[in-house]
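Incident log, support desk, overnight shift.

02:14 A customer reports that sequence design results differ from what the structure should imply. Their input is reproduced verbatim below. On-call engineer (initials T.W.) acknowledged and began investigating.
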């Protein structure tokens, strides 16, 4: 699982060895943790609740319930939602 904001270093196989390349990238997304088992996620263009749920290993229906979202098609870029990461 990749976490938004994580920097990833790319390695290339050369013969039997892996050498570090100069390539690296940052996982996109905006999420902040409150430290109490909740993440505040900012919706980006083309996000879906289903994809966000997969990223955080929760149900999209749970996200809808936690945020009082009645229709999953009504989310908008810039909207902030809460994702609970601990039971």
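02:41 Re-run completed on a clean worker. Output:
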């Amino acid at each position: 699982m990749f976490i938004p904001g994580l920097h990833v270093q790319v390695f290339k196989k050369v013969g039997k060895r892996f050498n570090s390349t100069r390539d690296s990238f940052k996982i996109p997304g905006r999420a902040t943790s409150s430290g109490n088992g909740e993440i505040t996620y900012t919706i980006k263009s083309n996000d879906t609740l289903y994809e966000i749920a997969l990223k955080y290993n929760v149900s999209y229906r749970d996200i809808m319930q936690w945020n009082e979202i009645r229709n999953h098609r009504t989310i908008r870029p810039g909207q902030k939602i809460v994702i609970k990461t601990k039971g």
